[in-house]
Amino acid sequence: MVPQAAGYSGLPGVVGSEDIKQNEKNLAVNQSWSHDSVDKAALRQSKPKTEVTSEMVRSSTMMVSDKASLLSVKKFELRDTIVKSQLVQKEDSYTSIQNFRFFVGTYNVNGQSPRGSLQPWLSHDIEPPDIYCVGFQELDLSKEAFFFNDTPKEEEWFKAVTDSLHPGAKYAKVKLIRLVGIMLLLYVKADLAPNISEVEAETVGTGIMGRMGNKGGVAIRFKFHNTGVCVVSSHLAAHTEEYERRNQDFKDICSRMQFCQADPSLPPLTINKHDVILWLGDLNYRIEELDMEKVKKLVEEKAFLALYQHDQLKRQMDEKAVFEGFTEGEISFQPTYKYDTGCDDWDTSEKCRAPAWCDRILWKGKNITQLSYRSHMALKISDHKPVSSMFEIGVKVVNEELYRKAFEEIVRSLDKMENANIPSVTLSQREFFFKDAKYMQLQVEKLTIRNGQVPCQFEFISKPDEDTYCKEWLIANPCKGFLLPDSEMTVELEMFVNKSTATNLNSGEDKLEDILVLHLDRGKDYFLSVTGNYLPSCFGSPIHTLCYMRDPIQDMSAESIRELTLMPLLVNGEAFKGEKPLDIPKELWMMVDHLYRNASQQEDLFQQPGLRSEFEHIRDCLDKGMHDTLFGSNHSVAEALLLFLESLPEPVICYEFYALCLESASNYVLGRQIISRLPECHKNVFKYLMAFLRELLKNSGKNHLDTNILASIFGGLLLHPPPGQPKPDITEKRKAQQFIHQFLLREDNFP
User: Fold this and answer.
1) Which of 457, 490, 569, 720 has the smallest set of CB atoms within 10 Å of its CB?
2) Phi/psi of residue 115, each to 5°?
3) Structural domain of residue 501, as residue ranges?
4) pLDDT tens-place string over residues 601-635
5) Which residues does 219 contact at the CB level (< 8 Å), separation at least 6?
């Protein structure tokens, strides 16, 4: 875990973030894969003279939604929730709209450090903005940043932004969030800081295996006065032909980005559960169907509207395939990508990328007016140009007197309900069946809860002697909520089998069977039956099990699969019931052979994600034994290989050797001895994979792979700590990388 800067105090024009508190805690900088942490730099530097006082901040956290609990005495458990819910419904009666100026900026900096002032971008207007939302992509392109999320560039760019904020106002930093090279900074005018509350930040990686943070999004949500705002900075998949992957990245960010609420009884907030959404970033959509010279000619003629008709993002939005409900302003500036660094010339490199509007700003919500949308050609350190937009946004501001009246009316009406009947609901159905469930393929069934005449709070609760309300492959979304009289809510039951649940479902030790208990506060319990059938998969099956399976797994009987999955790991590969095992799993051979024949020179192999639909096809081919039909891009097959290795219940290098391998990370002789002690099938797989990776390295001039990249990717898959142990820290990750690195440099025969 790498501590990130929480304050950076002492910079001109900025109030330190340690003085802006939320829920009585510092709004420290959040970093991907870690919790908020205190920073060394903050301790070194003195506090600025102008501070946002804790008294100001405490008042800011007490927004309308919280006041109900302070002004009323709870007469029963639901009272607080009812008051809050009805206050939201009556919001228009006690709020008025006031306009504030939001600056939104995005810049792909191509791994460069800042040089010179950013004021031409950040302080372009005469009037200072009230709020700054500043996003970056490709902050650091080093492998160190990619694999370990560690970079000095964060502090460099934070300081550069802080130094370049509008000189006409004093600003407080509210939050900084970073995922590898994607960063988002939020500032507010210091005198408006008391009106900021409920600040949360989250990250979603959409890179290879759906997790790596070279692509994805970071977001900050907050309340400004009484308006919920969510700002997202994202970097979507690259390359002209990959628009479907970009669409998928957007949808993944929307579905996986969830913010905890201050009230733990409330479900997490998603991006779309906000009044105002500002989305910025290198969205990577390109211009299609025009050759390079035609694009440049239209740019030279400033025929941007004609060029825009060929813009992929416009076309995908027109088809409602992405950013549904969002708006983008008219583009009246030339494409922001790709330039030779240091000047305004189009790309003259070997790849000679066509110009494109990669860098975009979109919005969603009411009372939003875009005042400007422009690029900034004066900044030349990157192959992208920064983009900015100034918005005037109508924010709901509370009138305290009108608020109190609304509050008192609600309390009076609640007093009349004190002796109301026990709550009850009607359910749309009580039995759910997931048909032909597959590995890593989401299925959703919907339950509608219709409330009666009494306000009620519902929650799925755990059964006796169980820790959670459902099995690991199931989730109810939301799992709890509140219903006013005569209202209804739809709950989605999501079934998703991953590496942690697949093995037991393959073996039959677990089944797609569960009972959900829906509990009403002060009311009765309702029981829901959830069943389904799971199609067994090579994903989640042990290596030695697959070596004994000569037939495709879905052609085998459930009894045979169970017997082979539960069989003990035989060290020397001896026959089981007279059947000699294969040297390696046939499914592994199919993927590696495909990549060897088709992808040895593929650029960005094992670093760029494939398409989910193609992974599902590859999985089905492997499970059904369709040997010659691994259709899909090289990236999809490569990602399937990584997911296969990740899903193994016992890694290629068995758990018992994990600590020994880390100890011998720089001793090849000891490392070879450890590998020689692996069970025969595991040893064969290790040797086979190392031979394949060494073949890829022979084409490094074309595929741009090197030993460090491959050792980092495969180190964490072939070698990881046993279940129950903490996740590996940076030191352990580096040792795992070192251990694999040794075998990529040598072609010795193993004993």
Assistant:
1) 490
2) -135, 115
3) 425-534
4) 998 899 888 889 999 999 999 999 886 778 889 99
5) 177, 184, 201, 202, 203, 230, 231, 232, 233, 253, 257, 259, 271
